[in-house]
Amino acid sequence: MNETPAVPPSPEVEGSLNEQISHRRRILAVLDAMKDGRALLSARIENQRGYFNTTLLKIDAEKGYVFLDELAPADGHEKIAVGQTLHLYGFYNNLPAHFAIEVIHVGEHEGIAFYAGPLPKLIHYQQKRAHFRAYVGLGKELKVRLRKGDGAQISGRLQDISLGGFGALMPADSVFEDLEIVEVEALELPDHHAIACSAEIRHSHPTQGRVHIGARFTQLAPQAERQLLQAIVELEREQLRKQSRD
Question: PilZ domain location, by residue?
Answer without folding.
Answer: 128-232
